[in-house]
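Model: You mentioned two targets. I'll fold them one after the other.
Researcher: Yes, keep them separate.
Model: Target one:
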Amino acid sequence: MIMNIQGFQKLTLLDFPGKMACTVFTAGCNLRCPFCHNSRLVIDPEKTSEYSVDEILAYLKKRQGILDGVAITGGEPLLQPDIDEFIKKVRELGFAVKLDTNGTFPDRLKALVEQGLLDYVAMDVKNSPSGYSETVGIGGYDISKIQESIGFLLENKVDYEFRTTVVREFHSVFEIDGIGKMIKGAKRHYLQAFVDSGELIGFDLSAVPKEEMLEMQKIMLKYVDFCEIRGV
């Protein structure tokens, strides 16, 4: 089973809504967001996995009845060739599974949902269509796959949330309104405050003040059922 796992948090009360969980961090990403706080996983992933699948499964066996779920994040987890097999093993042990994704692999996302392998999906919506290329660090970026993933999640075949990390250099109320239009009708959206982890891909980035975040929240609530600010 090919899974490049570079990080493992044995307990989290934050990463999987309503669950006591652990978090698995996979290596590699197809985007280059300047504000990414896991840049080590993105631009310099180790060739060999730091944690083996057997190690992770052994830990989960010991935590049956204690932990409720496993959150799989990255990087971009859907780059992992055998993620479906890994999730099946996790679910066989009785754990719920949450997937974090950037939405660039709609076919893989649909396949996992249709196999009943996911309980919750958190998809990053990086920016409005006009600002997407700059925000993901790739010139001329085609967002059609992003839009396909959004459309699929809006069908409510799996529980989900959309989320946007808000960075002063990339987001204004104009961009937030554009995001609202992209995900109109969504059940849940989070505006996440940017935090400099010290391991960013880009430079000279800053957070948006709380007052402006509150204005952005009001804008989002015109389009979605629920919007909350995280990290302020």
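Model: Target two:
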Amino acid sequence: MASLKRTPLFALQSAMGAKFVPFAGWEMPINFGSQIAEHQAVRKNAGVFDVSHMTQVDVSGHDAGAYLRRLLVGDVAALDRGRALYSLALNDKAGILDDLMVYSLGETFRVVFNASTREKMAQWLAAQQSGFSVKVEFRDDLAMLAVQGPDAMRIAQTAFGHDLSSLDKFAVMRAGDALVARTGYTGEDGLEFMLLAEDSLALWQRLRNLDVHACGLGARDTLRLEAGLNLYGQDMDESNHPLESRLGWTIAWQPANRDFIGKARLQAIAAADGMRELKGIRLDGKGVMRPGAEVQTATGAGVVTSGSFSPTLGCSIGLARVPAAAKGSVHVIIRGSPKQASIVSPRFLAQNK
């Protein structure tokens, strides 16, 4: 059995008493104590996550833009320099290979995708290079920290020591050897720092000295679920297409002469009936929904893809792939017993305002 990888912050996090778990080939902190406290810190103030397990790739060369226009459902030609794009990579059958972020740096692009798909995506990126003058470089020298929360921008700017006030949402800028993007995976405002491994240690310490809460993957999961954000490997994978994964908005159908991988199959799917959709689901009473639970609706059965307890709402919420016509009251089978639930907007946070 291959040994688990560790981020540059592993020793520091161990000294903090972090609880580690195996995740996508990495030994990652699940929490530093109370997962609920970490979750609430991000909603109320600011938290910092070590997400150095994410795969960072630089795509450069004369055909970098054309290459990515072929590979992704989003069109990087519409991406101004210094802007970020959330997109998908599909196979020929329109199955989702991965979801990812693309940052435009001019003639070069930084692409960040999931740790769990690294080997598959590496092979896929290489297989598509034929005919393109392009260089694909895996940046294993880099770490990544995410600072999220209503106070994140103010505190992170102090800790980082650069003026970030001009950075709009879904924008990216160079700051010395680092890239700083105003993006995240929590439903809160914040920043993601892509920086040299040795620099990540100093930034983590400065953030902690400014009382930014250290957070693990457990809180990251409940935060993204409250924001209705998909998790690759649960809410979507190669057996799902974007239209049944609430990701149709990521597809740039125009210009019509751009042919991205999976486009023809997606067009056929879009014209067909019987679509399933990924919808929000909220348990009406006690209990906690988990992935794999059956959902019974008046229009047919479905399945919970992500489910957990929501610290903000004080109840169990989830995402479920159900018939498109499903709405209103449904039942979720929990430990063999049907529990009443409701189909709701997956933007759960808006329901608490």
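Researcher: Noted. Anything on target two?
Model: The chain has eight helices and 19 strands.
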